[in-house]
Design goal:
Layout (H helix, E strand, L loop, with lengths): L2 H7 L1 H13 L4 H8 L8 H18 L8 H13 L4 H25 L3 H47 L13 H6 L1
C-alpha cells in the first residue's frame, strides 16, 4: 500500500488532529467557539479554517504542489494576519502536519519502506510552510498599509479642521516648467 493510500485511509483522523493544532493556537475561550462548525455566518473564522484545511489536505493527498494551494492558505493567513499572530505562530500549524502523519501512520511508514515517499512529503510540507510565510507577510503588509492610510487621512482631516491643512493644486504638465513660469 502506498503512503498516499495510507494517508487517504486515515484522512479523517489526520484532518481532525491537524485542525486541533491550529485551534490550540488560539486562547482557550476562543477555541470552544471555533470548534463549533456552524455555518460561515455563525462562526466565520471556524468555518473558514475548517473548510480551508480540508481543501489543503485533499490537495496535498492529490499531489498538488504547495504554490497551487495558495488560495486555501490565503484564507487562513488573512485571518491570522489580522489577529496579530507572530510569523512563526501563524505558520506553525503547517509543520504540525508532519507530527500528525507520523503519529497516525509512523509505524507503517517504516514497515512498508515508504521512507523515500516520506522524505518527499516532508519536503512538500516545508514548501507549504514557506508559502504560508510569504502569504502571511503580504497580508501583514496590507494591514500596515491600511493602518498608515487611515492615520494619514485622519491627520489630514484634523489639520484641515484646524485651518492648518490645504489641498495642493493640481499641476498639469512638467512641474519644473510650471515652477519656472
Amino acid at each position: 500500500m502506498s503512503l498516499m493510500n495510507l494517508l487517504l485511509e486515515k484522512r479523517s483522523n489526520i484532518l481532525k488532529q491537524w485542525c486541533d493544532i491550529i485551534l490550540r493556537s488560539y486562547p482557550e475561550e476562543a477555541q470552544s467557539m471555533l470548534r463549533k462548525k456552524e455555518d460561515q455566518f455563525g462562526n466565520p473564522v471556524g468555518s473558514t479554517i475548517s473548510e480551508a484545511m480540508e481543501s489543503i489536505f485533499d490537495e496535498f493527498l492529490h499531489g498538488t504542489e504547495p504554490k497551487n494551494m495558495s488560495r486555501f492558505f490565503d484564507k487562513i493567513m488573512r485571518v491570522r494576519a489580522i489577529q496579530d499572530f507572530s510569523p512563526s505562530g501563524a505558520v506553525a500549524f503547517v509543520f504540525g502536519l508532519k507530527d500528525v502523519i507520523r503519529e497516525e501512520v509512523g509505524s507503517r511508514l517504516l514497515e512498508n519502506g515508504h521512507s523515500e515517499e516520506w522524505v518527499t512529503l516532508e519536503s512538500r510540507i516545508d514548501g507549504m510552510a514557506l508559502l504560508c510565510f510569504d502569504i502571511y507577510a503580504q497580508c501583514r503588509q496590507k494591514v500596515f498599509d491600511i493602518r498608515v492610510n487611515e492615520v494619514r487621512n485622519r491627520a489630514s482631516k484634523l489639520l484641515k479642521m484646524g485651518g492648518l491643512g490645504y489641498d495642493l493644486p493640481d499641476v498639469k504638465g512638467d512641474p519644473k516648467q510650471v515652477q519656472a513660469n
